[in-house]
Amino acid sequence: MCPWKRQRYKMSGQDRTAIIMANTVQQYKDYVITSFVKSVQPIVVESARGCIIRDVSGKEYLDCFAGISVVNAGHSNPKVIAAAKAQMDKLIHCASYLYHSPATGELAEKLAQIMPSPRLRKSFFANSGAEAIEGAMKAARLFTGKHEIIALQASFHGRTWGTLSITGNQGRKRRGGPYAAGVTFLPAPYVYRSPWPDDPARCVDFWCQSLEDAIRFSTSGDVAAFIAEPVMGEGGIIVPPSNYFREIKKVLDHYGILFICDEVQSGFGRTGKMLAIEHDGIEPDILVTAKGIADGFPLAAFTTRDDIARSFQPGDHMSTFGGNPVSCAAAIANIEFMLEERLSEQSLEQGTYLKSRLDPRQRDLPLIGEIRGLGLMIGIELVLDEKRTPASAEAEAVREHCLAHGVLVGVGGVYANVVRIQPPLVISRDQIDRAADVVTSGIEQLQANTAAAGR
After folding, report:
1. Of the candidates 340, 359, 388, which is a domain's last residue?
2. Among 84, 147, 208, 320, which one is most buried in terms of CB atoms within 10 A?
3. Which CATH number fits the domain that encloses residue 399?
């Protein structure tokens, strides 16, 4: 037994909290691999509810990152927890691809009901977004009989070998290669850093021509699929122009290339629609979901048409834990809660309000290059000058400022210069006001420091 446990009755609560915190941090140092992140935030999380995280000392933090856009229905959502507990009392695991699990079947039906097209009705369940993306690529190759993939620069699809092969964010794939051959990368639909930042229509024409040229000159004519995120999350909350995917899909259809839509981060109400591709009014051939699907329980899926699903033959694919009954029960309750509470609509309304709080500051804070996003998926790109030099250190400083003031935000982007605000969709107006105040005060402080250094 640990010495602090034997002496717990002799210590104050404050002392015990300090020891728990120190012990957990030391355990991470000694036994948890963390070298792949710059640092683990100095918070020992004990509990969370709604949009609030509490550490072991009782300090509260307003979570505006939602566990990387996962707990869209809020931390510890009572309906989701009740459904998971009820399922645990009956069955935790049966290998849902060896036997029939009611929760797995029900979730598959529910996913079909929320897809952007009635033709997307067959789902394969996995445990993570990367695993589901791998399965989607396999399905595309089996169906088409082709092998190459076209992806986007600045994209992020996972950290397995296969998903890193199609990840265009160079900061994510610099080490660990070489990666799979047969992948072609196109310019990302990043209007702010395009040659024509004030002319989105010209940008779309250029990107469509780039796709056509890549198919004709940069591939062997053996392209199975094009994969893209409707809103690029890790790339810096990049929102393509409204007609981008419609025009891209025309080119894909002409060449018989499937469109894999990666909704891992943008799905489940995050952008103001249940699925972000609904903003574009097109039908993907395969749609991948994860993160927000089960409000924190590990689960992912790819959903596709009957004809593509039939491409799998015995032995082609499998997942021991895929379609886990507990995770599926949580996902069913999660989707029901979202629909009952109109969380997609709330996300759109609250996101519009948050941007209305942030947008006016862009005029008097030159550090803010652009504020962009859909719903409650918002990015603030920080730049050092009119040349749009990325302000990476400043973005990290804003995150540290927010942490010190009890607000949790993310940092991302190709140049790590984008402050990411992606709170649970149940966030209140008062909480949005607090987040906006803290974020802008951090940028104001940096702007003042920059001005003082300039003098």
Report:
1. 340
2. 84
3. 3.90.1150.10
Helix (H) or strand (E) holding 368: strand 368-374
Residue range 424-444: average pLDDT? Answer: 98
In this prediction, residue 452 has a pLDDT band, given cuts at 50, 70 and 90, of confident
**In 3D, which of 260, 256, 222 has the Cα closest to residue 138?**
260
CA distance linking residue 395 with residue 204, whole number of Å: 29
Count Cα neighbours of 18 within 13 Å in the Cβ-side half-sphere.
5
- Written as one letter, the residue type at 316 is D
Residue 5 domain flag: no
* CB contact set of 374 (below 8 Å; sequence gap of 6+): 231, 239, 266, 271, 272, 276, 279, 348, 351
Residue 27 inside a domain? The answer is: no
What span, in angstroms and rounded, lies between the C-alpha atoms of 257 and 140?
9
Q: Which of 62, 44, 38, 98 is nearest to 429 (CA)?
A: 62
Q: Which of 310, 340, 370 is the last residue of a domain?
A: 340
pLDDT, tens only, 231-256: 999 999 999 999 999 999 999 999 99
The total domain count for the chain is: 2
Confirm whether 1 is domain-assigned.
no
Same-domain status, 168 and 268: yes
Residues of the chain with pLDDT > 90, as a percent, come to 90
Rounded average pLDDT over 15-44: 90
Q: Is residue 177's pLDDT more than 90? A: no
Radius of gyration for the alpha carbons in the chain, expressed in angstroms and rounded: 23
Domain limits for position 84: 78-340
* Statement: residue 1 has pLDDT above 50: no
Q: Measured between alpha carbons, how far is 151 from 138 in angstroms, rounded to an integer?
A: 15
Distance between CA atoms of residues 222 and 1, nearest Å: 62
- Residues near 7 by beta carbon (within 8 Å), at least 6 away in sequence: none
Is 9 part of a structural domain of the chain? no
Backbone dihedral region for residue 39 (phi beyond 0: left; psi -120 to 50: alpha; all else: beta) = beta
Tokens of 103: 């929760």
Closest CA to 321 of 86, 87, 70, 92: 92
- Is pLDDT at 89 greater than 90 in this prediction? yes
